[in-house]
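Lab manual, section 2.4: Encoding a predicted structure.

Procedure: take the sequence of the chain (430 residues), apply the prediction step described in section 2.3, and record the output as structure tokens. A sample record is shown.
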Amino acid sequence: MDIDWRRNNTLTNFFYSCLPCELESQVEIENFLEKKLQKVLGIKSEKLEESIKKGNTKFYFSMGVPTLLFKKETGKLESGTVVYLSDEIEVIRGFPKIKRTLLLYPAIINYFKDSVAVEEKMNGYNVRIASIKTSKIFLKGSDGENHSSHENFEIKKNPMKIVALTRGGYVCPFTTKKAQELLNLDEFFSDHPDLVICGEMVGTHNPYVSQYYPEIGKLGFRVFDIRHKISNQPLSIENKRNMLKKYNLPPVRLFGVFKVKEAADQIMRIIKEIGSDEREGLVMKHPSMTISPLKYTSSQAHDREIKYAFNFPFDFGRAFFFSRVIREGFQAYEMDESSEELENRSKRLGKSIILPMLEIIKHIKEGEPAVEDSIIEVDTLEEAEEFVRHLHNLGVSTMLLKYEDGNAVIRRIHNATTDKINNYIKGGLY
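Recorded output:
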């Protein structure tokens, strides 16, 4: 079965066509929303229709399966929620946003009430791994022609396909392949097809966010949540860690479960320790996971992100810079630092702003564009090219710079920074 979303620009009808049977039918979108999606997703058809009309819901084919992607929050559905319309409707909910606390002491006491589990927040990219059921129609012949005869088609059913989705909701071919190389997922999803593994892909050969972790090296994965597909409800800390141990899946580091009265002091101690190791931060969770988590990051992480962003200052919004400076101010206040400690924090923050800016201005003045290169390990040139196509589809300006001995160098071009700095160097006004 094939579905054409594009034949009617008003999106009031779906057109279904079966290639082997040469049959076609039409279903009104209102009927589909009311009788199918509304029931599965638990939100009113009016909300769904409004999302479609505003362009917040995208219709496309993913892995040959008709797919709905919610690019923005719709009702109770998080942005990044994906709905696969195969033999049955499969829903993978978007990962909910985690709120941040600027001051530990009042937030923890007011928010958690009794106890707090503290896990490490790693610096990588957010991935949801799930299994979906698919069925596809294939040509029996290999000549590439369109055949209309029934015997020229066959339906091949794949009862389970494992996919890795980045935060935006798109299947990343690189991440999907690497996740299955790094983790033993078949047994987990065979036993639990209704669950989603949420985690962080980290390491130096990470094409999105590169950071060195001594226990990871080039590439690794750490699980921070296991969630139910449709409800998006997470397993408790204890159940999650027991399940990960059973299937030999690596969790993020758990620093401990603390009583609320002692939690802030313990977290302050831990954040200083991991900050000195140039690590990212912490996520604070209620052990039952019935309360949404909170996150808190180290000063070194703020500086590192600011330094990176000021290498490409016009490709990041002002809110990116402002929020990290605000975090630094509140953290310095709560830590009640000495004059010497405050001086060191201020110098570190200033260097993260000025030095990369100066370097990129000089670089562009010499006629070079603002670019960054990352290395990924792939088995073939075709895999590298597929990943670059994936980035292009996301609107990221990239190119495959080099492929040699299984290593692909991916270059990302930051056009806004290049163009605006060039303009200002030539006398353009800000």
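Check your result against the sample. The longest helix spans residues 339-365.
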